[in-house]
């Protein structure tokens, strides 16, 4: 079922959904099931699975020269989505990115997903790999998520790259995109960020999932600005609790967002690890309750494949 259909059928009740990571290379699918089993008890509407590009590492050979190796620490996004749908009968949503894919690679991936019965996609440009200072598209690939959306919507109408096919089955993907209440870090300002978000909607995006935030007013203002620009598709807030002292610096550094002063000061005053986790979880619970009162279409939890905190928060608010 499409995400938009889940929202319609909920009749105003906020959906519960989660994002997980594929297992590390060397682990089996049971690592994923172990993460999801406690969360499935709460009937998530859908489960996102992140995609992780190859990286390059250099190792010194016996002669002193360096050799470059290609590695992927978390392969298996598509297979994990298929396993989730088969095992739990819950809609799984793969992240589909620009980086590392030619247009032909993308088309083949979409054909595979269609054959597997996957109805939804979360479409992203993707981050630069660690060896790149800025994002570099694959030769023959897409530089922007908007271009990727165009290819998907073309396939949704039966338009393949090869226009000489004897048959051209139309697909029917529901397209999700990312929204940034505090703007994407590469955008010069929020207005420019919203301009490109609107372009994605005009090209065929069906729903938005936001980056995490810790101040609900950021989300409320973001939704208001979107509606003023006639961006009228569902905007699902992304949620993650702060649970460690180190996250006071790592979250702003890695995700380019602000932490509310009240939350930061509470954490700074505490010296106890468990107390810091309690502060973050209680803050997140209050966030979620306020968002539900606002009338959000759902709450989407970034679990980082840790189900314990997510389950506790969800049980407190649903």
List the helices and strands and how they pair.
Elements: H1 3-9, E1 15-20, H2 30-40, E2 46-49, E3 55-60, E4 66-71, H3 77-88, E5 91-97, H4 103-115, E6 120-124, H5 145-156, E7 174-179, H6 190-203, E8 207-212, H7 216-228, E9 235-239, H8 247-255, H9 261-269, H10 273-294, E10 298-302, H11 307-317
Parallel strand pairs: 1-2, 1-10, 2-5, 5-6, 6-7, 7-8, 8-9, 9-10
Antiparallel strand pairs: 3-4
Helix pairs in contact: 2-11, 4-5, 5-6, 10-11
List the uncertain runs. none
| Residue share in β-strands | 15-25%
Helix/strand/pairing category = alpha/beta
Task: Calculate the mean pLDDT score and round it.
Answer: 96
- Percent in helix: 40-55%
CATH class: Alpha Beta
- Radius of gyration based on Cα positions: 20 Å
Distance, first to last CA: 22 Å
Q: Remind me, CATH topology? A: TIM Barrel
Named at the architecture level, the CATH assignment is Alpha-Beta Barrel
Give the total of domains: 1
> Strand count, sense and closure of the main sheet?
8 strands, parallel, barrel
Would you report the number of β strands?
A: 10
Order of helices and strands: HEHEEEHEHEHEHEHEHHHEH
Q: What is the topology, as strand order, of the major beta sheet?
A: 1-2-5-6-7-8-9-10
The count of helical stretches stands at 11
Shape by Cα distribution: globular
